[in-house]
Amino acid sequence: MKINEGIYLVGSGGAGCMISNSVDCHVYLIESSEGHALIDAGVGLEVERVIDNIKKEGLDPQDINHLFLTHTHADHAGSTKALKDMLGLKVYVSKAEAHLLRSSDLMDQGLDVAIIDGIYPQGYKFPNCEPDVELNGGETINIGEWELTTIHTPGHSKGSICYLLKRDGRVVLFSGDVVVHGGKLMFLNCEGSVMKDMRESMPKLANLGIEELYPGHGCFLCAGGQEHVNNALEALKHLTPPPNAF
Ligand SMILES: [Fe+2]
Prior knowledge:
Elements: E1 2-4, E2 7-11, E3 27-30, E4 36-39, H1 47-56, E5 64-68, H2 74-77, H3 80-87, E6 90-94, H4 98-103, H5 111-116, E7 133-135, E8 140-143, E9 146-152, E10 161-167, E11 170-176, H6 195-201, E12 212-215, H7 225-235
Bound molecules: fe (ii) ion (FE2).
């Protein structure tokens, strides 16, 4: 579904709009005159539903040239291999998590615990995949009319990346699982989720003038995004843990 000019939601599971597999994160499509980009991929189950959603919007999946991963948790990165095989797109991932995309183990990122919790089906196996570009944070990449800047924001996971996009005065942040609606953070009981990292990362999102905030799950914002980020920054100034999304 089109959620703003040049931005579509083409995948979303149970923590969102249920337009694709129930485990999928939000999968966003950035439209440009020089080829489109995806932000995150989904879990790797029922990938064809994401492809169908793209076609329903009148867009050609073969025009997607880039896939930017916010991190490599399976609900975000499990469809990477299938999409790369199908569309030949270029895969971007944090240098800190590139090895997990190549050869993740169930224990590496809490997938074993998530299967016990029933989040992923029994027997689920993460489809490994070779990334094309390893990001350090601070890179600027042009996607047609859009200028995309990468921000390395570990805390939810070791290699979480937020993507700041600008076009015609718009300031848009794709925040993955770092910060979501209301300024809630997403700490998990697994490797890579570290409060100290989050304390050091979140100030990178201060004073960016974010209007549109598109997180990996839940409600997204078409205006006023910076206020929600500021709520998280304020919560991290106190002794008790900040509000968690789940
Ligand atoms: Fe995650």
